[in-house]
Amino acid sequence: MSTPPVRNPLPRYPTGWFAVAFSRDVAPGELRALHYFGRELVLYRGQSGRAVLMDAYCPHLGAHMGHGGTIEGDEIRCPFHHWRFGPDGACTAIPWADRPMKVDVGTFPVVERNGVICTWHDAAGGPPSWQPATHKLPAGPAIGAHFFMDDVVVHAQEVMENNTDFRHLESVHSFGPWSHESLEADGATLRLRGHGSAGDLTYSGETTLHGPGYLEGVSRIGPAPFSVQLLLYVTPVDDRLCHVRCTYDVLPDPGVPLDPAMAGQIAEQGCRETERQFHLDRLIWAHKMYVERPPLSTVDGPIRQFRAWYSQFYPAAAG
């Protein structure tokens, strides 16, 4: 009897930037217990507004600082013995002791842009080799329409790979034919351009993948005097699950007035439709296996080129 195939043999945690929260999820003086990359973490925002991500367990006697910990200034206080740690992870105070000990908590690089808090993950502990992009956003709230999906059974690579699987746009999402125009790879960036149709509407779009964990999609529908921008983030939780975050904004053409309420309504409708379509993918991801050498046809899309580009983010490639 042959050995059953592994559903997904890819390394689980690529190297790159990944979202851990929307900015609005944590206010100054608040903290959140998180679980990403197979480890317990705590995210907090100090009174100065700075977001900090660190290992959750206090090095003293192992209390989880995401459960019962408190924020004092820009420091976090352990709920067990009230040891305090600064944003750099160093111990800053021990009650009843003359001075703090030279002990620290592991911390992670954090960048907060576009209404999202991202962290750099590298299993080898290396520093960031590029920075997340800053995207054009409309005036108003840091995030317009958005959604969050937890416990999605999928590998991060497969979420991103969907952008090069053009035929599934028709078979799964009932879009019209999509015509691929170009694919350009430049280091940690991969850019795709194309055009297609949905019913009586035509649309064109450009999707830019920024490393293994997030992408920007900008599309234009027919003669509308605006484009829509989708920012999609996928973050590995453990060896089986990912979390997905998405923001959706309307960007008026230069010099074109667009009522903010109407723009918000368009964005909300588009975001809800994107979320509905995402659930269709989610049903397939939950039960599929990864085919390492698929017999691709000439109409499948640039899946092989995508996989070659994405492979750079795995530890073996980085080393």
Comma- or semicolon-separated keywords:
18 strands, 319 residues, Naphthalene 1,2-dioxygenase Alpha Subunit, Chain A, domain 1, 4-stranded antiparallel beta sheet, alpha+beta, Rieske Iron-sulfur Protein
Strand content: 35-45%
Q: Total number of β-strand segments?
A: 18
**Rg over C-alpha atoms, rounded to the nearest angstrom:** 22 Å
Query: How many separate structural domains?
Result: 2
Query: What helical percentage do the residues reach?
Result: 10-25%
Query: Taking strands numbered 1, 2, ... along the chain, how are they ordered across the largest sheet?
Result: 12-18-17-16-15-14-13
* Overall pLDDT confidence: 92
What is the overall shape?
A: globular
What kind of sheet is the major sheet? Answer: 7 strands, antiparallel
Q: What is the CATH architecture descriptor of the largest domain? A: Alpha-Beta Complex
CATH fold naming of the largest domain:
Naphthalene 1,2-dioxygenase Alpha Subunit, Chain A, domain 1
Please tell me about this protein's structure.
- There is one protein chain.
- The model has no long low-confidence stretch (mean pLDDT 92).
- This protein has 2 domains: 16-121, Rieske Iron-sulfur Protein (3-layer Sandwich); 145-318, Naphthalene 1,2-dioxygenase Alpha Subunit, Chain A, domain 1 (Alpha-Beta Complex), CATH 3.90.380.10.
- By secondary structure, it is an alpha+beta fold.
- The two termini are 37 Å apart.
- The strands form 4 sheets. It has a 7-stranded antiparallel β-sheet with strand order 12-18-17-16-15-14-13. A 4-stranded antiparallel β-sheet has the order 2-3-4-9, with no helix packed on it.
- It has 5 helices and 18 strands.
- The radius of gyration is 22 Å and the shape is globular.
- The longest helix has 26 residues, at 260-285.
- Helices cover 15% and strands 37% of the residues.
